[in-house]
Design brief:
With 349 residues, this protein is of the alpha+beta class. It contains eleven helices and 13 strands. 34% of the residues lie in helices and 23% in strands. The structure holds cobalt (II) ion (2 copies).
Length: 349
């Protein structure tokens, strides 16, 4: 019998059968908070990338967990992408990741042990590249393959990049091109080219460590907010910053960096997460003249996407120059504006 491809162990490539933003809100609404503790600096209530807990006056823990189904058939690549994606939430809080715990869900009837081993090897290779120690992990039986990590890092309590930190006039800067979800989905249906897939993979495999390190070296006050662009897409994660900060994020869609082929493929098919994201975006305002494929790109769920920063306007040129000098293709994509009368949280123009 021929072995199944890794992506055949998943109902939906790159998903962990997750609740969409709307379902998650409904499930969480009204639940009592477990315990009040003044040392909790950031928790789930602001939909930040990771929680932050002040450990001492000059050190806070950053904790997050992320795991999902295979979006590629190569197990070594899948393991690396899962690790890069999980680490990203710590970088997005301004933190430095230090330790990780692996989480794996594996079907009873496969994949073969040597394939599972390659997934773990890919993850470990990426953790090593990031300077993160693997402490342990947990595996369960599940009809779908799922893999990822819980990651712990540290940050100075005064230098946490919270979603609530965006200020009117801040410039929006994105550090990776968009379109990984569109390309992965197209690949499943045999519609992407080899070079389109390899650009998407290269982007997903890239750690956000350099972009974060350059930003940590910025003067205090220059960085407003930061998030990584993942499953809820650019519009979804921008919505989280808009809600937490009380402002509106306005994107100039023609300035958005795009993976080669993603706009053409966007018209042909859409990842399921993109559709559940679109349903949630009733406060996403799209100005007339914005091309439909660019709207789809803004809703596209990203795997291991880039960091979205809001930067003080006087600092943005230096910030982008420093990112580019370090090899990060940072791009200016919009600005933070006052909340408009129509209640729009994110505006595409
Ligand atoms: Co995140
Ligand atoms: Co996350």
């Amino acid at each position: 019998m021929e072995a199944k491809r890794l992506t055949e162990y998943a109902d939906c490539a790159g998903c962990a059968s997750k609740l969409g933003p709307a379902e998650l809100d409904a499930v969480m609404a009204g639940l009592p908070f477990a315990h009040h503790d003044d040392r909790v600096l950031v928790d789930f209530r602001t939909a930040d990338d990771a929680g932050v807990y002040r450990w001492s006056d000059d050190s806070a823990l950053v904790q997050t967990v992320d795991f999902f189904t295979p979006m590629v058939d190569d197990p070594w690549v899948f393991g690396q992408v899962a690790a890069a994606n999980a680490l990203s939430d710590v970088y997005a809080m301004g933190g430095v990741p230090r330790t990780a715990l692996a989480i794996a869900a594996l079907p009873k009837d496969g994949p073969a042990p040597e394939v599972v081993r390659e997934i773990f090897r890919g993850g470990s290779d990426k953790l090593r590249e990031a300077g993160v120690a693997l402490l342990g992990g947990h595996t369960v039986t599940d009809p779908e393959v799922k893999f990822g990590y819980s990651v712990t890092g540290h940050v100075h309590p005064d230098r946490v990049w919270k979603n609530s930190g965006a200020r009117i006039g801040d410039v929006l800067v994105l550090t990776k091109p968009l379109g990984t979800g569109i390309i992965v989905r197209a690949t499943k249906f045999g519609r992407s080219t080899e070079s389109q897939l390899s650009s998407a993979l290269e982007s997903m495999l890239g750690l956000n460590s350099t972009a974060a390190e350059v930003a940590r070296n910025a003067e205090p006050g220059q960085i407003g907010a930061c998030t990584d662009v993942t499953g809820f897409g650019l519009a979804g994660h921008a919505t989280e910053i808009a809600l937490a900060s009380g402002h509106t994020l306005e994107f100039t869609v023609d300035a958005l960096p795009v993976l080669p082929g993603a706009l053409d493929l966007a018209i042909q098919n859409l990842p399921c997460g993109g559709r559940s994201n679109q349903r949630h975006y009733d406060r996403l305002k799209v100005e007339p003249g914005v091309r439909h494929e660019l709207f789809l790109l803004c809703c596209d769920p990203q795997t291991s996407g880039g960091l979205l920063f809001t930067i003080a306007p006087e600092a943005v040129d230096g910030f982008i120059a420093a990112q580019r000098a370090a090899g990060v293709p940072a791009t200016r994509v919009g600005e933070v504006v006052p909340r408009s009368a129509d209640g729009g949280l994110v505006r595409l123009r």
